[in-house]
Amino acid sequence: MRSHPTNPSGAETTTARIEWPMNDHGAMTVRVEASNEVRQIVECESDAVKHTLARLPTGATVPLKMESLGSRGNAWRVTELVGVDHAQRPTAPRRDDARPVDEDRDERDRRVRV
Length: 114
What we know:
Elements: E1 12-20, E2 28-32, E3 38-44, H1 47-54, E4 61-68, E5 75-81, H2 101-113
């Protein structure tokens, strides 16, 4: 991708759908909604962006700002998740029930002893 004088980094904002979720190497496949183009995301600007992308399931759509890593074929770096405040994201998955984790373990222990 050539950089444009008003966009020297070459980053573009687009809405993408997750085709393959992030793997153990930090890479994932997305499809650009507007053009149906498939892109391989291989880098993220920050750990917060990487962590958020890693939690997204197949089929999710997300507005991304990304730039081509021209020397690596169809490889892209996500520089920003547009409209996402990383400071407010949950630090742990939510549980469906309000029981403390230790109660779950005690319940399993009781079943094993019976």
